[in-house]
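This part of the workshop introduces the protein records we will be handling. A record pairs a protein's sequence with a compact description of its fold. As an example, a complete record with its sequence and its structure tokens follows.

_____
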Amino acid sequence: MLFLPLMSPAYAARVPDLYQAEAQVSGEDPEQREPAFREALGKVLIKVTGSRSILTRGSLTGGLDDAASFVQQFRYRVDSLDDSGKEPHRSLWVSFDKALVDRFLAERRLPVWSENRPAVLVWLGVEARGKRQLFDPERNQPERTTVEAAAAERGLAMVFPIMDLEDQTQMQVADLWGSFESNIRLASQRYAPEQILTIRMVAAERGLWLGYWSLYDREGMPPQHWENRGGSLDAALADGVNRVADILAARFAPLREDRGLATVRLHVSGVDDLTQYAELASYLSGLGGLDSLALLSVEGGRVTYELRGGSAGAIAEDLDVGEVIESDSGAGPPATVGNTPTGMDLYYRLR
């Protein structure tokens, strides 16, 4: 999970550690490591594909059984003694080979969500005993820890407001509870987020917590609203964060049965030397959700690629999240993202 500093451009964030995970292990013998390797690889596959149901696919069984072949490095960590005071709790940290994992998924025609992911700014409010207050990441450490842990399990890049005087002035409790979109977007501008998430958690009777969630995309696009509940605040928060990950993964790394194949011609200007060309090629090769990437032409500082994969709209949104190129609307006819046809042309330039 990421915490980005104030005023850092948060249109996108590079999410680290997607190919690393921890699992409980009973001992340090090789046969005791195997179950931990499988569990850790399962966690990595969920982060990399964006799908929490990915492990139910039969095509992955062989890979999980052979999880040790993907391991790049591992180390043990002793956390604490168990309740009897005799046996320590051990965990195994595992780093998997990115190229091998990506190839394994590609061979099964499953998505690979790139490390460049949309940054999500989180505004959280809590209502308990008739009192409403805005979440402060410095004072409300337990809630922050819960959100961070759930986000880390799904590979989400989340940003917390620092709640200084400017934030407290711009964002009021009434804005959050009233879902006043214009005020929420105005208060969020200093963080330049790709997505804005508002959460209202309400303590109900018998320990039950009710959650009211809204995810705001770019200006002009309708927000998504949903409700959830949990037997504890932690449970409700974790469940809601998983829903956020499901929504974003469906857009940026859709499973094949959820997407239509499309071909996009990407025109990128400002590519004037081999260093810039290599940077662009490396960036495009790392995009998730693509079935193929082919160079069509290089002419006068403009490079044209053919990208084939998910819907044209999803490819365009994935490109907009990155930090290497930016839209160049004046370089060609405008493209409509949404119900876009195959053969769509997109015009960008190097940043």
